[in-house]
Fold this protein.
Amino acid sequence: MENSLLKDEKKVTRLIEDIAAAISKNDTQHFLNLTTWEVIYYDKDMDMATETMEAIELVPDNFIEITDIATTNIDLPLMKTFIDTAVATDSALQTALHDAVKGAKPFVNFKDVLAEKPAYQKKWYQYKEECYAEDAKKWLISYGILPA
């Protein structure tokens, strides 16, 4: 099957960004339309929910659900890796972040600690986006959409 997507680098980049965004959202379902290369966001509470799901069910071979990479536990391992690598030069911050992710509400605590260090906060969001983009690429490769 000819993959016209590969001929347009901007479309590939946009698709990776869209799938990375889908990975970061756990409150909705996401589907990749294999005809248009668009990521469709489905939320049962949205206005067009019934129509959206009916369109997906009408031609199910044209869609892949993105749920197998969008998990609620994806950020905690990323946070721990970020702490061990990107924050290695600031031992006080590294200790504070390690303590933050050990306790109750690790995500809130992590963000609160980083809020006091805007440069590291910016690095965190960049790091997280890069990891999500890498996961999106791996997902596309696993389905044969992008070459290995």
Helices lie at 9-24, 49-58, 75-85, 91-102, 106-115, 118-142. The chain has two domains: 4-70, 75-132.
